Amino acid sequence: MTAFEEPEPLRIVAASLRAFDCSYPRYVENPPPLGAILAVREGPCVVFGVVVNVESGPEDPTRPLQPLGEPGQSAADVMRAHPHIRQLLRTRVRVVACGHATDGGPVPLLPPLPPPLLARVEPATPEETRALTAGGRFLPLLLAASECDDAVIGAAIRTARATFGDDGRSFLVEAGKELARLLRAEPARLTTILRMAV
What we know:
alpha+beta, globular
């Protein structure tokens, strides 16, 4: 499972079939990392996705954050000295859909409908992650998504591999074979992703 802290719920603020944007109600230090596999359990089906971007900044982008703190102070020290700042900031997460589940287990297909707005987003379980990613079945959707660059795909493979335990090596071999099939016309890209996946 993804090891990120969830001090407050991460909720969907915009959604389509292929991607969804999520936000915390304030700034958080430990959002889900690049490549994390998340799940939305509300709506007509469970929707799974991979984190492609994380950003933090002012709630109102037209009013940039003013630098605070004394020379030599760490970010944590500044936050402790100015606790109100946290309420003026937001952490946002961009997720690309990579599968869904209805009555059965996860399948690596786009969901029939977008997940509902304001639905809670949480880490996929290790069991869900293994079912979704076994044999590299989730890779075609990621490769087709314009927001999934090589770093995202490599990070998603690393995330999935961690859930396979002692079988992680076998998973990596299978995912590599699937990538080789999908990227047979792009050997340089294949090599780059494989290097990022280990």
